[in-house]
Amino acid sequence: MSLRLKTLRLVRSKAELQSLPEGKVMINTINAHSYNVAQRDEAFARALQGGVLIPDGASIVWACRWLRAESRPEERIAGWDLFEYEMQKCKVQSAKCNQARKVMFMGSSERVLSLIRERMGREYPELTCVTYSPPYKAQFSEADNRAIVEAINTARPDLLWIGMTAPKQEKWVHQHWDKLAIDCHVGAIGAVFDFYAGTLRRAPEWWQRHSLEWLYRLLREPRRMWRRYLVGNAKFIGYMLKERL
């Protein structure tokens, strides 16, 4: 198997986010879907394990307990939870040093990024927002990659968010990690760009509390999500049985 949940090192709780080291750190998320994809994509499996890994899925939390894994998370840590924690941390740091910290969003469309800039201006006026929208294509050219790296290095952000959906975002960062001349946390958070921009609605709190956010998305977008959740969840259970045995 390309990736084994039994031996993965995972952040165990939201409180443990405070223990993450400062400086250049890649933070990835894992859920049942990304676990499934990693079984057939070696590059994605390596990318996931190339940084700090948080359990963005109740199924991961439950499976780790059932497998008696080396890391057994106490709770789900969604990409949104990571986003809120890091943004608040940046806000506090800005106040302490009396200098605006710079947050960069790399990914998504210019429309989404413009909405992010507007909301950040209202909610985090003490932070500076920088954005970059890469070309919308399945695979970037060498020129595209150089332009993205240059944009990031020129911005020199204090916090960098990558939003190009999995597995593309994780693989891109892993592949270009050594070329990024930055000294900050880098989070691959995909759909959070749309959640924050308001172009995609996140499940209401009740659904989140009861670990049904996946079902909410399935009910809202059945034609797009049925394979990911219905077929994907069955595959994940099969992989867990294989790991247990």
How would you describe the overall organization of this protein?
The chain has 11 helices and 6 strands. The protein is an alpha/beta fold and 245 residues long. The protein has 2 domains: 1-13 and 26-76 and 225-245, no CATH class; 78-202, AF0625-like (Rossmann fold), CATH 3.40.50. It has a 6-stranded parallel beta sheet, sandwiched between helices. Helix 7 (168-176) links the parallel strand 5 and strand 6. Helix 2 packs across helix 7. The longest helix has 23 residues, at 222-244. The chain starts with 24 loop residues before the first strand and ends with a helix.
Outline of this structure?
This protein is an alpha/beta fold and 245 residues long. It has 2 domains: 1-13 and 26-76 and 225-245, no CATH class; 78-202, 3-Layer(aba) Sandwich (Rossmann fold). The chain is built from 11 helices and 6 strands.
